[in-house]
Amino acid sequence: MTGVRLRLDQSKDWSESLVLSANLMLSCAFPSLVFWGKELVQLYNDAFIPLLAERHPADLGQTAQYCWSDAWQIVGPNLKRVMDAGETVYYENVVVPIIRDGKLQDIRWTYNYSPIFGTDGDVLGVLVLCQDITREVAATQNLRDSEARTSRVLQSIGDAVIVTDGDTRVVRMNSVAEQLTGWTEEVARGELLSRVFRIVNETTRLPVESPAERVKLTGSVVGLANHTVLVSKDGEDTAIDDSGAPILNEKGELNRSCLPRYRRQTRS
After folding, report:
1. Under 8 Å CB-to-CB from 54, ≥6 apart: which residues?
2. Which residues, other chains included, contact 188 with Cβ-Cβ below 8 Å and sequence gap of 6+?
3. What is the pTM of this model?
4. Nearest C-alpha neighbor of 224 from the set 205, 203, 239
């Protein structure tokens, strides 16, 4: 019955409330299903089929307890709350273990159970809207892990490193960069590199072009001229060697960030 609009004359054994509820569910683009009656018979739309995996089509028209026996300790009490008390039940990013691909898996769901009321106020069934967010959650966690690894690597570098976005605004900096510039990462984040990484010619005191700007223009590794000093936030001069390098994406194109890297210069 998925993907089909029902009419009363096509379903003479169905009540008007059931036909209306089924049509509402079938016309929804979001994965949804209806549990109907005291036995909670399951009906679902096309968008819900991928979430069922091998359960489809056998679970169509079966009772909720039969369909979700592997997760009934969670699903059952929630359906009971809706049917007995007319409550709406909503959970976001929760684990509901179900059998999928022949094995029990921890699937993360965001779902909403809403009561379907009859004209007399009785609860006739449950409308369920849900989403399997397992992959999204895993991708988010992988990104966090990657960010944490990047941060650890950045902090382990003995030279000062500042990462900027494509507009040469500070995104990250390690502890060595904080010491030399006098800026903390928290305060510097979002500031133009030219303000945080203030460099001048040691003799003329004229500003030296930001390496991030040069990387942005050329898309290649650049270095500073000799006799360049870094002026810290507190006005302290530090003679430095410097280089800037582009960070490229998987296509070899300049990404939104570049990496100025510098160290104290040892002079005889």
Report:
1. 100, 101, 102
2. 162, 170, 173, 181, 196
3. 0.60
4. 239
Other CB atoms within a 10 A radius of the CB of residue 106 amount to 9
Write down the H helix ranges in the chain.
16-26, 49-52, 64-67, 72-85, 134-156, 175-181, 185-188, 193-196, 211-218
Among 4, 13, 21, CA closest to 124: 21
For the stretch 48-67, pLDDT in tens is 999 998 989 999 999 999 99
Using DSSP's 3-state secondary structure scheme, residue 163 falls into strand
Inter-CA distances, 155 with 130, 150, 158, 191, 255, Å:
42, 9, 8, 20, 22
Give the pair of three-digit tokens for residue 208: 């030296």
Place of tokens 């490193």: 161
Distance CA 246, CA 164 (A): 10
- Digit-coded pLDDT (tens) for 178-224: 999 999 999 999 999 889 999 898 889 998 887 777 777 776 666 66
Q: Which of 184, 179, 172 is nearest to 158 (CA)?
A: 179
Q: Which CATH number fits domain 157-264: 3.40.50.12500, 3.30.450.20, 3.40.50.2300, 3.40.720.10?
A: 3.30.450.20
Fold annotation for 8-137? Beta-Lactamase (3.30.450)
What is the spatial distance between Cα 64 and Cα 140, in angstroms, rounded to a whole number?
A: 32
